[in-house]
Amino acid sequence: MAAVLAMVARGCGGVWRRLRQRCAVRPGSGPFPRGERAVACNARGGMMSAGKSGLTPWIPVVGLEIHAQISSNSKLFSGSQVQFAAPPNSLVSFFDASLPGTLPVLNRRCVEAAVMTGLALNCHINKKSLFDRKHYFYADLPAGYQITQQRVPIAVNGSLSYSLCIDNKMSQMVTKTVRIKQIQLEQDSGKSLHDDARSQTLVDLNRAGVGLMELVMEPDMCCGEEAAAAVRELQLILQTLGSSQAVMAEGQLRVDANVSVHHPGEPYGVRTEVKNINSIRFLAKAVDYEIQRQIEELGNGGTISNETRAFDSKLGCTVPMRDKEGKQDYRFMPEPNLPPLILYDAKSLPANMNHQQVINIDWIRERLPDLPSVKREKLVEQYGILPEHSFTLLVWQQDQNCNSRHSNEDGLPEFFENVVKQTQMKPKKVIGWILNDLLSYLKQHSLTVKESPVSSFLLADLLNLLEKKEISSTAAKQVLAELWKGKGKTPLETVKEQKLELLQDQKELEQICQAVIDGQENEVMAIKAGNQKVLNKLIGLVQKKTQGRSNPVLVKQLLEKKLSE
Ligand SMILES: Nc1ncnc2c1ncn2[C@@H]1O[C@H](COP(=O)(O)OP(=O)(O)OP(=O)(O)O)[C@@H](O)[C@H]1O
Ligand SMILES: [Mg+2]
Ligand SMILES: [Mg+2]
């Protein structure tokens, strides 16, 4: 065990600690009742787990398949509208319902979105990709097959870099990379609505035929935290590109987590697949649960079968759904109604070609927006803020996108930049006001940046007063609290109304300092005996007496002078 514990170094240490605490607190009970276990990271960032005996470490392996709904007005092969929560079966064309004689017509927007996503994820874009039929029987799949890209997908061999904090500390971030095996275009299925009361199942085909990108990642991850961080970054990239709104709560981003464990030097273990996880928090929990369950099972002499499981968010565990397709034959065959999808680049584009009829990969590449990683780098370079602060700015924006459905609106980074443009305060100081003060208000009131009653202009105005030493930072916080009430007053008006101007009268300030010194004999003795920390208490008392209107630097000087007399 000691050897395994020594490996807690990077990445998933927080998970390890939580799991260990759970085991320590509830020995022999809970979801993993037997045996001691530990999960830690090895040097390459992988998580290692000791089984029952504690002698043979386990290496968990995690690979994700992600279905991202393409942001498009119409479906992948039909003109039906795409809309969330429309009345059941109100957005269904004859093709979506698989009426005989109907044919697919490929949606250009969906292809462009997949190319954009592939380029953003450093993929090779195949200039020729193929469509296939994947057969399976289910009530919400009227054709009996799904059109997908099994043999030659549109994009292959990419990578996604993502960062995660060690032990939940923003200051200790590591960056990792997961390989993207492929991105394929495919149709979504309909939805089965189970009516338990009447023991019947109803089918809604609104979602049938909506364009999806399936992103298949290589099994490069090793714990729930890594999987969660990778999906977070992917979500932000998709939203930045506009290729998917990626709102998980609306099923626009669904994750299948493949998990296995094996001993070092041995081949990968049999994987189970936890299907359709629709929240990043649940993803992390499902993966970690599944790792522990498999270790437990194998440690007790059992075996892992290649099965499909679901995550029960109420119980916090995974449960079997059905056996995996080792037994199920999808009977893949080429889709006869769709020719190969041909894309061009600047070199291969035929002369005199009508641009409306072709897709030029280079044209799309040139128009890619700045990706989140580039945005973060620019923020750090341009404004000198810490990398972890740039991270918080973008992650907060992402949370907003997911909650507010305005994924393309200006977010926190833009707010920060606008404040910086309008104030003389240094960006390094401005970021503190945004991340500590503004964010806590927004969080408290569950508001988006757009809904903030304090605009970037107002905040800049306030910070200018502070910069010009017209108010103290304590007073600035009071003004911010007032501005937050949204009464339409300017910071200066608020300062005047509440009499928060900095005390300029040095004589008055000296008198107040003297009064504080006279009333704090013990503290004065402590300071004189060399305990300088106590000075802060006296500064605080002066601030209190002046209702935060004194300049703490000046107060410190005055107190020091008086105490040395
Ligand atoms: N031993 C393993 N442990 C964990 N994950 C694995 C392992 N082997 C493969 N994977 C992951 O399993 C996933 C396989 O996805 P892929 O789409 O290729 O096949 P599939 O799950 O059989 O197909 P589908 O679910 O689309 O019908 C990939 O994300 C891959 O990284
Ligand atoms: Mg797959
Ligand atoms: Mg799968």
Global outline: elongated
Label the structural class.
alpha+beta
Helix percentage: 25-40%
Q: Which residue ranges are poorly predicted, with pLDDT under 50 across at least 5 consecutive positions?
A: 1-48, 404-409
What is the overall pLDDT average? 86
How many domains, in number, for the residues? 4
| Rg value | 30 Å
Task: Give the total of beta strands.
Answer: 18
Largest sheet: 11 strands, mixed
Count every helix, treating DSSP H or I runs of 4 or more residues as helices: 17
Which ions, cofactors or small ligands are bound in this entry? adenosine-5'-triphosphate, magnesium ion
Beta-strand level of the residues, as a percent range?
A: 15-25%
Can you describe what's shown?
It is a single chain. By secondary structure, the chain is α+β, with helices and mostly antiparallel strands. The protein folds into four domains: 2-59, no CATH class; 63-334, no CATH class; 372-497, no CATH class; 506-564, Arc Repressor Mutant, subunit A (Orthogonal Bundle), CATH 1.10.10. 37% of the residues lie in helices and 20% in strands. It contains 17 helices and 18 strands. The chain has helices at 2-5, 13-25, 108-120, 224-241, 280-299, 361-366, 372-383, 387-404, 412-422, 427-444, 456-467, 473-484, 491-497, 506-519, 521-528, 534-545, 552-564, and strands spanning 38-41, 47-50, 57-69, 124-125, 128-129, 132-135, 145-148, 155-166, 169-187, 191-195, 200-204, 211-217, 253-262, 272-277, 307-312, 317-323, 333-334, 341-342. Strands 1, 2, 3, 4, 8, 9, 12, 13, 14, 15 and 16 form an eleven-stranded mixed sheet that branches. The chain has a three-stranded antiparallel sheet with strand order 7-6-17, with no helix packed on it. A two-stranded antiparallel sheet has the order 5-18. Helix 5 (280-299) links the parallel strand 14 (272-277) and strand 15 (307-312). Helix 14 crosses helix 16 (534-545). The chain is elongated, with a radius of gyration of 30 Å. Bound molecules: adenosine-5'-triphosphate and magnesium ion (2 copies). One magnesium ion binds at residues 65, 214, 216. This is Glutamyl-tRNA(Gln) amidotransferase subunit B, mitochondrial. Subunit of the heterotrimeric GatCAB amidotransferase (AdT) complex, composed of A (QRSL1), B (GATB) and C (GATC) subunits. One of its GO terms (cellular component) is glutamyl-tRNA(Gln) amidotransferase complex.
